[in-house]
Amino acid sequence: MNVLDKRSLGAGLGAAVLACAVLPVVLPPYWVYLAISAAISAVIMQSFGVIVGRAGVMSLCQMSFAAIGAWVVLRLNVAEAPGGFYLWLILGGLAAVPVGVAIGLPALRIRGVNLAVVTFGFAVSTDIVLNVNEFPGAKDLTMLDRPAPFDTDGGYFVFCVIVFTVLAVALGMIGKTRLGLSWYELRHSERSAAAHGISVARSKLAAFAISAFVAGIGGGLLVGQLSLVVPQNFAMGQSLALFAVAVMIGPHHPEGAVLGGIFGAIMGTIMEKVSLPQDFGGVLFGVGALLALRSGLSQTDLTRMRKREAGARKLLKAAEDKKTAEEQAAADGATVDGKAADGKSGTPAAPLVVPAAPRPAGDRTPLLTVTGMTVKFGEVVALDAVDLTVPEGGVVGLIGPNGAGKSTFIAAVSGFVGYQGAVELAGRPLDRLSPNKRATLGLRRTFQTTVIAPELTQYEYLTIGAGRRLTRAEADELLEFFGCPPGQVPVSIVDAGSRRLLDVAAAIAARPKVALLDEPAAGQSAAESLALGARLVAVPEAFGVSILLVEHDMELVQAVCEEVTVLDFGNVIASGPTGEVLEDPAVRAAYLGAADVPAS
Ligand SMILES: Nc1ncnc2c1ncn2[C@@H]1O[C@H](COP(=O)(O)OP(=O)(O)OP(=O)(O)O)[C@@H](O)[C@H]1O
């Protein structure tokens, strides 16, 4: 846990203790009652925080999960089950979990508005079922008695704050795990998550399960407040209003959940005081949610990000100063291929090195073997029986003009696109495996368009990529090796070129057998591209990772790749040692144009 987290935890616990000590004493009884409602709403908000705020799933049925928690608590109360309220509360949360998983299943195939409709459908069904079947104890008014010492309103407020705090700490800890970080990645790009070996299905279902548990606890707490609940307490309109608050405020951060809880609980009273209809509060939430959806970030995300960015800019500045000094020293001593580094903002020191000479292919063991790879998109034959091998410890290139099929090749080999043919990694056939399974077996890839969650720091992104918690030293070594900004710097202020390098670093962090890199030099200056080349050449020895490089930058390809395969209209038109292939008249004619090929 870093210093910032400890500070936030201290501040959060301090605020909770203060609220418990002061509010029940100074507030009039009605406001203490409202404070309980706010604390319970804050708990339910945390369930939105997991599924909406972190995983980015549009779930409109959280109050239905809360209703399940409430139903179980009341049922156990009527049955006078052993264990008492505390145990019943947990059982209510647990009872919501399988339902959460069941509702999460459609999320594996559909997303966005369609998924929102499915979850809303569940909310409507729950509404109907609840209205037809009363809650246990409603008929004969079997009320729930709050347990001592939390039996007074003031005491129950303290209990609700304790439950909120325990959940907030637990969710904060989950948020730091790879599962928690993967939710942020899912929110922005499911394919990136899969490429990092994350099971999208498992990760989404876990988010549904945990959010349902938290909502179930919230429902049970509501029973403790009201002694008996009615269907209207869990109406679908409630889910909608709280969803809007969640999107607007961002309850995946505790301060957002508290704010959301307070808004949710007191908005009605405020509207009444200013003589506006109560529903007007919902309209305000809806407008706020629309604004947040447009920017893609909630209010607490933005506030936290600004804070983090302010601190990180100093680190970036220091890195830039260091880079300038290194460039100056290098410029005093030598130039690279006659070109000067351009000092692009936000990119830290890229060592100005002359690229390593290509190494002979030798008789190395084939590590990745692709045979007869054919991919068709309708009438378009994107790949036609392509063979390619990446040897152990090798860096090989895949080049070709725009539309030749290079990205399709990477997509097919990594399991994102269906194909005919065979892919073997270290002798193991991969053809029936999903992208995330291929990734966990040691086949990583990067994308031409890099999508990295801006909420993450670079350290956190490396953790996702590595599939395990890296030591600070390991992470720093990787970032330095690839010339990325310091690890604490949030992705939100890292420039596009550096994000690509970070993506490569994250792929290598997992120490896969083979990394498929799709145009990693795009967005880099000429000097940065050459520096990247020197790094890629060193990757097999430094990290034990072989590389397939897709690039348009011929100087980089020539400097880095011992062998190269050329595609044109999905067909291999040449393959072999880089120098020979680039001299091939067929390659020059079909693809490069003589003027583009640097003399070797
Ligand atoms: N999802 C898709 N649906 C239909 N056609 C596709 C799809 N993806 C790629 N293609 C087609 O397959 C062919 C190969 O495209 P691909 O993106 O693999 O080429 P590329 O060599 O990576 O090009 P570039 O260098 O521009 O990235 C192109 O004709 C492209 O239009």
UniProtKB/TrEMBL annotation:
GO cellular component term of the entry, any: plasma membrane
CDD domains xref list: TM_PBP1_LivM_like
Residue intervals passing through the bilayer: 9-27, 33-53, 60-79, 85-108, 115-135, 155-174, 205-228, 280-297
Region (Disordered): 323-358
Membrane disposition: Multi-pass membrane protein
InterPro entries: AAA+_ATPase, ABC_AA/LPS_Transport, ABC_transp_permease, ABC_transporter-like_ATP-bd, BCA_ABC_TP_C, LivM-like, P-loop_NTPase
Name of the protein: Branched-chain amino acid ABC transporter ATP-binding protein/permease
Organism: Actinomadura soli
